[in-house]
Amino acid sequence: MADSISMQRDFWNRWNASTREVHLEEVSFRQAQVVRSWLAQTPGIERRILEVGCGAGWFCGELAEFGEVTATDLSDEVLARAQERLPNVRFIAGDFMQLDFGGEKFDVIVALEVLSHIADQHAFIAKLASHLHDNGQLMLATQNRPILQKYNRIPPPSPGQLRRWVDKKELTSLLSRHFEVLQLFSVTPTANKGFMRILHSRTLNRPIRALVGNRLDRLKESIGLGWTLMARARKKPVP
């Protein structure tokens, strides 16, 4: 296990340094947009927020507008640089499944594209729940398996990169033991192969967006064609 975690740490240090520290793509922007809208609707002036799998800390500055932020990731080298940029955020490097937060509880936990890289997803969801106050909220984004498998060419996992995508039904099942699912939908329609590549092409969609704005994209999202599954869930009170 130690060797496995070490390989994962090396991979994510490299990956974050070459991607999230350099640029963000539409998928990330849309996830952040949804989470910001949820936070704006969630009461709590002095809320405490935990971001699990924060990568390069690209979203932490925005989260800090909504409360006190603690953020964790395997990427220790990347987090060291993030701490310099964002001194108001508490960064903790390490394997979330092994980190000891003691009895610390949070009002909101954010986890963007982390679930699919976890070996024991049931244990991961349980630990997320354990660090939330009763009725605290989980705001989670994860890859939408049918869309990625059917309509997108994705390179095979690199050494140290775990990959287990889920579909909407599987995600609901994972969450339901510890959470009441409040919202679950897809965002960011994306495809790079087959007919769906044409349907989502910028050439086709640019004039449509000029006429109707983002309504066509929202329609595609509502019928499950998005790259990402977004879930907002409330922790069930512990008996």
Automatic annotation (TrEMBL):
Pfam family, one: Methyltransf_25
Keyword set includes Disulfide bond: no
Entry keyword Protein transport: no
Superkingdom classification of source: Bacteria
Classification via SUPFAM superfamilies: S-adenosyl-L-methionine-dependent methyltransferases
UniProt record, GO biological process: methylation
Residues covered by the Methyltransferase domain: 49-136
GO terms, molecular function: methyltransferase activity
Keywords, sorted A to Z: Methyltransferase, Transferase
Name of the featured protein: Class I SAM-dependent methyltransferase
Organism: Phyllobacterium sophorae
